[in-house]
Protein 1
Amino acid sequence: MEEMKKACFGVRTDLALEERERFPGDGGEVAGVKLREWEKEKAGLRLTEVVITNEKGARSMGKPVGTYLTLEAPGLAKKDEDYHKEVVGELSAQLKLLFGRHGIGTKEGKAPSVLVVGLGNMEATPDSLGPRVLENLQMTRQLTFEYGEDFCAEHGYPVLSGITPGVMAQTGMETAEIIRGIVKETQPQAVLAVDALAARSVHRLGVTIQLSDTGIHPGSGVGNHRNSLTEETLGAPVFALGVPTVVGAAAIVHDTVGAMIEVLKREKATAGFGESIDNMQPEEQYELIRELLEPQFGPMYVTPHNIDEQVRMLSFLISEAIHGALFL
């Protein structure tokens, strides 16, 4: 019952790591969910792997069965080229490992064929990560038309193609409709969808990268894609790579309330008020905040003041990691 109550706590997040943090303990108490954590101390990186193994775990987490790997790199907020190279190397290695688990790679002398989809809206900076990654990628599929199907394999290149489908307001089409047609025509081994995400904690904006092998589902991503992008809907394995660029205003206020409660409890005049709020369940506190905020402001999201600079840096970093994972 306690797990079900926590699963209903509606703080918006696309990060499996943050969903997992709603449950206390080391991971063993959540049936159907495996947790593994490790650090790259020299590089200053922390990695967390959440594996949802069955439908019970999926219901508890509110996410599909599959693997979710989160790379936390606090130093990304700084202009440190050496540190950024460490992040690129680790992200590249983890992406290559995830591809390998699903048999995506060089087989029988053929180069891996991957379609990269840059989800989002180039006109809205917090949602422009996917399209900007596509701008930095070195596409190679055209070489198979110029020099023959075996050219990429002979030179250690992947058959890499990409598309920025835009958003429905621009195209009048669902993203899934566009990608389904491209996959049917080009037959890639895999689809890699790159997207901007929403987080629960402001501390994870721009410094956390999530990889998953479950594709993109309705409600995920800043653009809230309406139809799923999964192997079932597209006909090819779908991997997702995302970075949180926004956090809900209600979530920020909720975190602030926690600090405010402690201040109220310390003062005699407000101690009773602080204790009454503290006695509310976290989900009750959050719903109260939403009821107060949303009639006035709507479901508002907040992004860092330097998001344009962050997105430019992240898009280059991610494109380099994709190159490193696919080019031999």
Protein 2
Amino acid sequence: MKNIAFIGTGVMGSSMVKNLIKNGFHVSVYNRTKAKAQALEKDGAIVCNSIKECIQNKDAIITIIGYPKDIEEVYFSEQGIMANAPQNAYLIDMTTSSPKLAQKIYNTAKEKGLKALDAPVSGGDIGAKNATLAIMVGGDQEDFEACKPLFQAMGKNIVYEGQAGAGQHIKMANQIVVAANTLGVCEAISYVKSMNLDPMLMLKTIETGAAASWQVSNNGPKMCNEDFAPGFFIKHFVKDMKIALDECKNAGIKLEILENVCAMYEQMEKENLGDLGTQAIIKHYQK
């Protein structure tokens, strides 16, 4: 498996493409904003003008795009993946999306002689750059094993979670923990500042103890320095939390922390802050 199509070359996707190329894969890329794809030409990517062109004669087709509605269009439109993918190709959606949509892609792929995996990732732009992403995979285990070399080029913690949609369910669990952790870091920083102590020293102190987390070590310093550049967009986190809350509703469970964090981020999105990084939630505590 050497010839790969990669659709979606944003903050995460561009670094993932570079790591695939570094590991010897031949990668064709497509992005709706062509300039984002063209930026990868210097790294050896082949830039295509359409999805249909990008996926021709490919062993695997990887997508990491914005919202479920975008995935629907990319996979199910007349010029999209399902209508134009070569027989026996692996379809790997690495977007954080709806488990139900992952199951729809899997079932449709099976009908068409294609093999689908849902494989959302965690680790942000840093994990994408360093090829240390956590990758959570749902689908048939034999397809997971066949695609493992691809995943190993992009991540470190690669786990087969179960049937189609399982990867997305585990990613929802990941986002639930991230929601709580992010708010905890904000509140710790706010508390320390109110005591006239150094928040950066506090983060350094607690990052190896029981409070250690990715949020403490990575987004905490960004909050202190008011660095709100997106490693992960607020608008995409809102999307993820809403998917998780929808799944909760269907399962008849209530997660109060998730509901509260989602409401706070939705308010930021209403204030036109959706293109900032998730660490910008500290602004809520600066009001």
